[in-house]
Design brief:
Elements (H helix, E strand, L loop, with lengths): L1 H34 L14 H7 L3 H16 L14 H9 L3 H4 L3 H33 L3 H14 L12 H23 L3
Length: 196
């Protein structure tokens, strides 16, 4: 009986240490990616993943909690998240005894609501990004401009464009404006060449 408890304690300690180590490594990786946001590979660091989105929104506590939750799911034998753990769970106790406060591990209701709200915003940002990419790729070819305009109309109706004209939401509209301007410049050039 005593041997079983020592064996369980050893496993819990090993797993919680791996969780804490993974969290440190991921926090450092995320820090590097967001600091090097001007790099070509990471033009928009808030689209790397949900933790990157939270970090870009300056929500450090939720960023750290989301990273910890991901690490916990990967290392927990039953792939449970922090939300699934109870106060008397051996893994919860292991994390709380050496690495994190109990208050941090168990999100408050306000933090949970903020997490849900931020996740909704993250999903909308991903949809906006995918639509923007589609529009720009189709406008770049010049032959599928109708698909790009249809995507813009979808974007405007479904994904709720920003009425103030701020942020990523105006990217598609700006791309369409450039496309129209390019067409007008080409037409003007053609007309001037014919000396009409």
């Amino acid at each position: 009986m005593r041997f079983d408890k020592e064996l369980i304690d050893y496993e819990v300690e090993k797993i919680t240490k791996r969780v804490a180590d993974k969290l440190r490594a991921r926090t450092e990786t995320l820090r590097q990616h967001t600091e090097n946001h001007h790099a070509v590979l990471f033009a928009s660091p808030n689209l790397i993943n949900f933790a990157g989105f939270l970090k870009a929104a300056n929500n450090q506590t939720l960023t750290r909690w989301v990273l910890l939750n991901d690490c916990m799911r990967e290392e927990h034998p039953a792939q449970q998240s922090l939300l699934d753990l109870t106060y008397d769970d051996v893994f919860f106790q292991g994390l709380a005894s050496k690495y994190f406060s109990k208050q941090f591990l168990m999100l408050s209701q306000a933090d949970r609501a903020e997490l849900r709200s931020q996740f909704g915003s993250f999903k909308l940002t991903l949809k906006n990004s995918a639509t923007s990419t589609f529009v720009m790729l189709n406008l770049a070819t010049g032959t599928t401009w109708r698909a790009a305009v249809q995507a813009y109309l979808y974007f405007k109706d479904i994904l709720s464009c920003d009425p103030q004209g701020k942020g990523q939401n105006t990217l598609i509209l700006d791309a369409l404006r450039v496309f129209v301007m390019e067409g007008l410049i080409r037409a003007s050039y053609q007309i001037s060449q014919k000396n009409v």
